Amino acid sequence: NAGVTQTPKFRILKIGQSMTLQCAQDMNHNYMYWYRQDPGMGLKLIYYSVGAGITDKGEVPNGYNVSRSTTEDFPLRLELAAPSQTSVYFCASSYSARENTEAFFGQGTRLTVV
Amino acid sequence: QQQVKQSPQSLIVQKGGISIINCAYENTAFDYFPWYQQFPGKGPALLIAIRPDVSEKKEGRFTISFNKSAKQFSLHIMDSQPGDSATYFCAANTGGFKTIFGAGTRLFVKA
What we know:
Chain A is mainly beta. Helix content of chain A is about 0%, strand content about 50%. In chain A, the strands form 2 sheets. In chain A, strands 2, 4, 5, 6, 9, 10 and 11 form a 7-stranded mixed β-sheet that branches. In chain A, a hairpin with a 5-residue loop joins strand 4 (about 30-35) and strand 5. Chain A is globular and about 35 Å long. In chain B, about 0% of the residues lie in helices and about 55% in strands.
């Protein structure tokens, strides 16, 4: 049982480049989330999804896009990368919204934009 | 009003000592308060959680104390061990999709 798997673990992007952070979960969870974690800060919610085909914005969605074509996968797209997007990105999933704080997190993707 | 303020930013405790991390909130709509533990290179993992109708919850060496009138809650780690060295996040949730996290406390337990 792999849980939540994120790829890649590390990435360096140049300003203006684009990339997709991959996230997959094998727990059949309906709810999935993307967070970013900046040094000395808590996690900020970027986007979330309540099921295949349904996504919505979190606290800090600007500069990102998501899609949810299957229950298992929830990729995060960065268009026109900027230095402000240098961060550690975490994908998470949960069984329901009421227990969304009991989320299972992936190991994170450390992204540097130079 | 949506913030959760966490202190201290970092904490050094001797092995066997008590680690105490404090959090405060303003939004009275919050009704679920979890604590997450994060080891370096790993994602956060739920450690313990409490609802405001309970003043204290204990799981092993970890205890949450909750003061609803003061809008404060804290994590106590008894008999702290080097293996407890990690970053701890408090959080608050209203039952919806948006969990508000504190800034985190980096705990180091000296052997």
